[in-house]
From TrEMBL:
Organism: Motilibacter rhizosphaerae
Keyword annotations of the record: Transferase
Domain of life: Bacteria
SMART domains: PKS_KS
Entry's Gene Ontology BP terms: fatty acid biosynthetic process
Name of the featured protein: 3-oxoacyl-[acyl-carrier-protein] synthase II
Cited PROSITE patterns: KS3_1, KS3_2
InterPro entries: Beta-ketoacyl_synthase, Ketoacyl_synth_AS, Ketoacyl_synth_C, Ketoacyl_synth_N, PKS_Beta-ketoAc_synthase_dom, Thiolase-like
Domain Ketosynthase family 3 (KS3): 1-354
Similarity comment: family membership: Belongs to the thiolase-like superfamily. Beta-ketoacyl-ACP synthases family.
Length: 355
């Protein structure tokens, strides 16, 4: 028998600050970009070789758990991972270029799975530890995969989410050449400014219903792939959203809000809006926070899920309309669909409902 899965904790680190409350409070702020980075001085120290991405993931996981102890063999970790410890990689390359020695620990620090391993080590989790690398959809996929571990009974607690700290000069230069970065250094979802490159991490605690006080319910999920969509979302996203609603036994009219991918690029936002209109007709309220956090790549879906959970606990929701206008509005919390689209064609959707 499959077990209902609930969210019992949330932790977040972003350009808005340390802690989940800063995420919702700053959801409508406009990032001063085109690159917004984490401040390493605010993150826990994990040893001299640990990269910023691992330190951010551990900070988010510690907040999400809130000091709770776990049963090691029944606890898992599933985190979205993108470029791994890119700062550690670039540090090692610079050291090699000047003839200095490179620490053997650096080879672990810049692995894509370094953040997931750091979290598992920090909380003493001995169950499945997985890094999901589906580009900008990785955080959403990680939540779905972690929920499956809990629903199936394989784990009793899973830390899920994503982490990315890759706003290095080299990565920013590559995105600038691609034409994706905002020329003005500011990004407003659905306004066509271009994206701001960000860094961050978010972790949710998933458990079976009844194990601890619930903040939200993981109601459904779906994933897909579009081989033709190397950079931008595609209309195939509509089928993935429908799949998530079907998994949650919901109709489009049951949805209270959509947490959109909304990177701020002209083509990407237009394709996403077209897909959402195909599913919903008249759009429900749209939540779009990448204008404030920057696009955090593998962490983006996790931060979006964290915003959705926090909004479900609030009488107001931060909204962005299809023209880019922003504001908060009162709402009656209901099912939220969180949508992600990753470079390379990865598509994912998650449904979070009130507990």
């Amino acid at each position: 028998m499959r077990r209902p899965v609930v969210v019992t904790g949330v932790g977040a680190v972003s350009a808005l600050g340390i802690g989940a409350p800063t995420l919702l409070a700053g959801a409508l702020a406009v990032a001063d970009g085109p690159v917004v980075r984490l401040d390493p001085a605010l993150l826990p120290r994990l040893g001299s070789s640990a990269d910023v991405v691992s330190r951010a993931a551990v900070a988010a996981a510690r907040e999400a758990l809130g000091g709770r102890r776990v049963v090691p063999e029944r606890t898992g970790v599933v985190l979205g991972a993108g470029l791994g410890g890119l700062y550690a990689w670039e540090r090692a390359v610079r050291a090699q270029d000047r003839g200095a020695s490179v620490s053997p620990a650096d080879s672990v620090a810049f692995m894509p799975g370094a953040a997931a391993a750091a979290v598992a080590r920090d909380v003493a989790a001995l169950g499945p530890c997985r890094a999901v690398s589906t580009a900008c959809a990785a955080g959403t996929d990680a939540v779905a995969l972690g929920a499956e571990l809990v629903a199936s009974g394989r784990c009793d607690l899973v830390l899920v989410g994503g982490a990315e700290a890759a706003a290095t000069d080299a990565n920013a230069a590559a995105l600038r050449r691609l034409g994706a970065l905002s020329p003005s250094g500011r990004a407003r979802p659905f306004a066509g400014d271009g994206l701001v490159l960000g860094e961050g991490a978010a972790v949710l605690v998933l458990e079976p219903e009844g194990a601890a006080p619930a903040l939200a319910r993981v109601a459904g999920s779906a994933a897909g792939f579009d081989p033709a969509a190397l950079v931008e979302p595609s209309r195939r996203l509509a089928g993935v959203v429908r799949g998530a609603l079907e998994d949650a036994s919901l109709a489009p009219g049951d949805v209270a809000a959509v947490d959109a991918h909304a990177t701020g690029t002209v083509a990407g936002d237009a394709a996403e809006l077209a897909a959402l209109q195909e599913v919903f007709g008249t759009l429900p309220p749209l939540v779009a926070t990448k204008g404030s956090t920057g696009h955090t790549m593998a962490a983006a879906g996790a931060l979006d899920a964290a915003v959705a959970v926090l909004a479900l606990l609030s009488p107001e929701i931060p909204c962005t309309d299809a023209a880019g206008a922003q504001g908060t509005r009162p709402w009656t919390p209901g099912p939220v669909v969180s949508v992600s689209a990753g470079f390379g064609g990865y598509l994912a959707a998650l449904v979070l409902s009130p507990a």
